[in-house]
Amino acid sequence: MIVVGIDEAGRGSLIGPMIVAGVAIKNDRLKFLKNMGVKDSKQLTRNRREKLFDIICSYSEGFTIVKVSPEEIDSENLNELTYKAMIKIIYSLVEFKPIRISIDKVGNTKVVEQEIIKLGMEPNIVTNADIYFVEASAASIIAKVIRDNIIDTLKSKYGDFGSGYPSDPKTVNWVKNVYKEYLTPPPIIRRSWKILQEIAPNYYIRKW
Question: What is the rounded CA–CA span in Å between residue 44 and residue 79?
Fold first, then answer.
């Protein structure tokens, strides 16, 4: 029997894409992966996540990622984009005939639940699924490792902007410096994040 876990990385970031990942795993491999240390990616060091990434790839049936760009996030509702990505992932992994789809709950996920039921699978959409269900933990690791690698590439082009999250002073200072130097914001910045009203008002765009 196969189960699928889905989770995201970078949802609340000011800089860079959101990555949504889904991974299909045989039910009898979950205990092995848990014993290897698979858990919520936020509880792991980067080095450990990268090692577990390789193990997950080796012991899963397959995985899918969806990259949601800052431009998309600025033009649509973030929750709706997340649900669309989740549904796309579910359909991409349906060939494995999973019996259960475990997803970390974000807002009102009714539309995702309905799609899962329509496909004849069990929806397991709960808060902190990435903590309580190994398949969701595995998806969390996949999403985080891929986003980390993307962030490294962005830093090589745009400079070291820290974690990319608005709570990070290094990120905020980087945005302030870029704002002083360039009238047009780099495309890696999410211009609909309200913190820009304070630190870079000409970059900020309001969502209606």
Answer: 26
- Tell me if 204 is assigned to some domain: no
The edge-to-edge listing of strands for the beta sheet with 2-9 is: 62-68, 18-26, 2-9, 100-104, 122-126
CB 101 within 8 A of CB 113: no
pLDDT tens digits, one per residue of 60-111:
999 999 999 999 999 999 999 999 999 999 999 999 999 999 999 999 999 9
Question: In the 8-state DSSP scheme, what is residue 186?
Answer: P
Give residue 21's domain range: 2-154
Question: Considering the domain boundaries, does residue 122 fall inside one?
Answer: yes
Question: Identity (one letter) of the amino acid at 92?
Answer: S
CATH number at residue 166: 1.10.10.460
Q: Is this model's pTM higher than 0.90 or not? A: yes
Structurally, how many domains does the chain consist of?
A: 2
| Of 2, 19, 1, residue with least CA distance to 10 | 19
Phi and psi based region of residue 200 (left: phi greater than 0; alpha: psi -120 to 50; beta: remaining): beta
Rg of the chain in Å (alpha carbons): 18
The DSSP-derived string for 109-127 is: -HHHHHHHHHTT-EEEEET
Burial of 63 (0-12, 13-18, 19+ CB in 10 A): buried
> Does a structural domain hold residue 205?
no
Q: What's the pLDDT tens digit per position in 118-143?
A: 999 999 999 999 999 999 999 999 99
